[in-house]
Design goal:
Elements (H helix, E strand, L loop, with lengths): L3 H10 L13 H6 L7 E4 L5 E5 L4 H9 L5 H7 L1
Antiparallel strand pairs: 1-2
């Protein structure tokens, strides 16, 4: 929800390279139901929310969505 003037120096200082957004009017926060920071949003091919949550689990969500599961336990359970 910070302005770009506040956000950009922070991102540079901490050497973040991922895309970030600024939402001072909190419109995106309300639209996606974001309740914590940082948050990743994965949108499917139809433009619908596939996943809204912490970015630390986003890679696994993408793997599952694309059918790229590699966890042996999960694969065996599905099989």
């Amino acid at each position: 929800y910070e302005t770009p003037e506040v956000l950009e120096p922070f991102l540079k200082q901490h050497r973040y390279t991922f895309r970030s957004g600024s939402d001072p009017e909190k419109q995106v926060i309300a639209a996606y139901g974001i309740s914590g920071w940082p948050t990743s949003v994965v949108i499917d091919a139809e433009g619908k929310n596939f996943h809204v949550g912490d970015p630390y689990g986003a890679e696994q969500v993408l793997r599952e969505a694309l059918g790229l599961e590699r966890d042996a336990g999960v694969l065996l359970t599905r099989y």
